[in-house]
Amino acid sequence: MLSVYSFKNHFLESLLSNGSAMFPGAEKLLAVYYNNETLGLISKELTLNSDSPTLNSGISTDQSIIKLRKQRSRSTWLKNFEIGESVNSAKTQLNIHSEYDNHVLLIRFPNSSDGFSDLLFVFFRNEDQIFQFTGDPKKLSTSIKDVVANILIRSLDVFRKQIENDAAIFDLINRSDSMYNKDIKSLTEKLESTKQEQLSHYKGLAESVSDPLSKQTGYLFNWTEESLLKLIKMQLPIKEILSTLENALTIVVNRSIKPGSIIEINANDLTIKGHLEKEMDAPIISIRYERTYQLLDRYEEAAKRVIQERIPLTGVNLGKYCNPAVSPAAISDALKKHGKKIMTLFDQEPNRWSLLRNEFRPVKNIMYKTGLKAS
Hints:
By secondary structure, this protein is of the alpha+beta class. 50% of the residues lie in helices and 14% in strands.
């Protein structure tokens, strides 16, 4: 028989599965309960000489069952009660008979789904079976039988509570796993998004090198994803990236024999000059600093023109000689936005941008605040 979690089914089904151990002395058990999926009553019956509960063909949902489900008392000892075949119906019904005279214990369990009670009938042949007496016992008093009912109710309530707790823990685990899977999916999507952003950025950089050559030669250059991923992995300074791209174009153009064709640049075409791979622990300026690098080059060129004109190197004059011209406010905003990256580049490239470092006061102020000395 297939084993499943006890809370996968209605708790009365799990109870029937353990009926022999939980109800010594009983001859059979009958469970009648409301099913949330079918929105109707289901019955299962267990004779205690069988191995497992069997699905009954259906207990008639006549007024007798409905009346029993509406009652609130947790237990009732029923008189003249058995499961028999109705003469007028193919369904099993509750009929009066003396065979189980006052030896059927009905236990009710509140069902929050429909507001009535689920029913468990415990059938004893006679009173000696209730406590498994031997010999010829006396009739049990009503108070003693009520004690028996209360003991059973408390035991079964503990059993039900444990099943409900297990179901709650299982649901908590499922929700935790679901959240974990969602987090993994979200992280994967973010990583993929970052990867695509990097690819797009590097592709734009590569095309900025290949497009002018394409106009000159008539070749169409296609940078493969593998080539761009290798370029990203190289983690080169911007100058070496541009040099590597130019080297790749030199290789593929000279390898092609058909003018005007589409040339595909693969990962193998990307080589560093001198065939020297950059060591991982060496100082690097990643592509993240490209715009800052270009900004400093642009301002440095403008500063050279200002000095050549023999006029003060101010924000107004620097912006005037930028190509295209910019306002002093725009220069101030750009320096503020790129401040940390500027200091990183100054540290990595101590011999570049000397005019900005030594003559342009807004840059000198940034250096002063970070403690970096002019070169």
